[in-house]
Amino acid sequence: xxxxxxxxxxxxxxxxxxxxxxxxxxxxxxxxxxxxxxxxxxxxxxxxxxxxxxxxxxxxxxxxxxxxxxxxxxxxxxxxxxxxxxxxxxxxxxxxxxxxxxxxxxxxxxxxxxxxxxxxxxxxxxxxxxxxxxxxxxxxxxxxxxxxxxxxxxxxxxxxxxxxxxxxxxxxxxxxxxxxxxxxxxxxxxxxxxxxxxxxxxxxxxxxxxxxxxxxxxxxxxxxxxxxxxxxxxxxxxxxxxxxxxxxxxxxxxxxxxxxxxxxxxxxxxxxxxxxxxxxxxxxxxxxxxxxxxxxxxxxxxxxxxxxxxxxxxxxxxxxxxxxxxxxxxxxxxxxxxxxxxxxxxxxxxxxxxxxxxxxxxxxxxxxxxxxxxxxxxxxxxxxxxxxxxxxxxxxxxxxxxxxxxxxxxxxxxxxxxxxxxxxxxxxxxxxxxxxxxxxxxxxxxxxxxxxxxxxxxxxxxxxxxxxxxxxxxxxxxxxxxxx
Length: 484
Known about the structure:
By secondary structure, the protein is an alpha/beta fold. The protein has helices at about 15-20, 40-45, 50-60, 70-80, 130-145, 160-170, 185-195, 210-220, 225-230, 240-255, 275-285, 300-310, 335-345, 350-360, 370-375, 385-400, 405-420, 435-445, 470-480; strands at about 5, 30, 100-105, 115, 150-155, 175-180, 200-205, 230-235, 265-270, 290-295, 310, 365, 380-385, 425-430, 465-470.
């Protein structure tokens, strides 16, 4: 399996080579040369597998430069009940990603049912753990095999940072430099990241929005000399390894929601950077019977606008709203380029032309192109949610079903309700509610439940560097602290 750039001007490479990098040298994102097809026989054989063994079966279709026994061992090391044990009452830790049925629907196949696919039972209580824990083990394995070291540079709007740091803390050969928007995350999210005292973890709070931090990460990745000298790697969802690992739980959710492989399932996904739902798109392209992928945004509705109108119009930082679902306060969806590459028939020249407009601060409009008509083939629907919607949904879900959801999952539930059909509908949970206690108190008048071990998190000592959203300053900090 070789990987190519969405912009078509970088050499094809194998998985382990792109795992340790970020953007392709031409500024594009890596994707497989073709998606492996999944047959009905595959689905039948995989239905009864454990999550770890399902992960191996799927990832082995994308990874052929790690011996099969080693890859299987890495999956089994990662996906254990002890790692993903922060389950809610009644959940099955052994399932890794259990489904909570709000409305079971009719029959074993859950037709018409509404469920939450629990993805936040990992160590940082967010769906990012599902891929990041595997990425940490893959990094360590590849670096040890090559005798190399890596300085990871990432940007977070809230959950990626803590998931990456918990996955990489103590890993030999790895340092983490994580940028976050100063004062824009919840108190719980800040405490999860900034309270870590590990020598290989460095937090940088950037005065700006997430997009400013993400722009710095991309600029460093595009400085090929600096990237090579300081051995810069990536853990944001621009890293293909993240997306590949996320494909697995779409299959797991499908199996939990159906009792045969001739059924379709709709899936609603809260989305900011388009990484999570991009994995769903790829699962669907592989042959998983997903009917509709419902893209749910908050007030930063760039993606919803595209799917409704055919116009992709990123916003500036000044135009980006600060909301109560802060991990989706993103107006430049990095992974969206991967979907557009497929939408335009994998024509890299078209992608380069479109992103030349985006990178120049503009937008693009597909309405006068043949690609607008093709959008329907990919099964996307969309919608947006507001702060008032969020509060109302949190209250309604608690009152009706006795389940407390976080603000981002509430966005997913609100938009999912607009597109509910006869197929089972799974809403992909983003995080546990405790990570957004301030808004949950506003919605419910009380604090959400806390899993054991998180009682005094915000009171722990914190350390981070606060600096301007300045590329040169971030590079200087890396120079001072990186292993070169």
